[in-house]
């Protein structure tokens, strides 16, 4: 039985799927962050190996005919990466996988807001333009990290309200002054863990959280419009934009004229891209049913 491997290596987790050429899933697994641009190479490759090996458990490796991995920051196959797969993998940008997760069209615009944030214009599954994606130090506006940092900034300034209460409780801080100490002692990207608190507080009417949501959505919409060509498909991806919540709803409202669709699982899209290298007519709907 011929099968393909699809891997989506995100900043939070790595997900792998093994499927037949007609989209039937025979293996699936998840592990930690597998992006060498976000963590050490040894840790990233260990997590990717865990996800790939887990998905291949019980599957004849000799039946693997193609593999695709969506990975930010790496454009070529390294020896370490190739060693993880039964066959040499095709490496594509995570934004290319995200577009394929939302539409079979090879061209369009994808807006991703997960731990980070980026928008990309894609033509024939090739990135031709991007906006933001500058990392937590210089950009990623509207991302989970950005939302979490705004929440921490609001709490450290002792702005009264539910959001501050939730942040203090989450961090185990006794008062607002401890927020800075705890935040600075943790890895920077840990602030992304506070993003759900913004959504929770906003849903319950907290003014500070509502302001953060409104501003974050506006920043994401601006990023999208920097690269979007009207009339082409638009896809929303990443946890901030695929999980129901106030940011997702606000962004969808702002981008309503572009009729954005929500991306499905990135690993399924990567598997479809892999299948297309062997069978160009591989049905998108079979891998990503709407």
From TrEMBL:
InterPro entries: ATPase_BadF, ATPase_NBD, Euk-type_GlcNAc_Kinase
Keyword presence, Coiled coil: no
Domain annotation ATPase BadF/BadG/BcrA/BcrD type: ranges: 5-252
Keywords, in A-Z order: Kinase, Transferase
One Pfam family matching this protein: BcrAD_BadFG
Superkingdom as given in the UniProt entry: Bacteria
KW Kinase (keyword) present: yes
GO molecular function: kinase activity
Protein name stated in the entry: N-acetylglucosamine kinase-like BadF-type ATPase
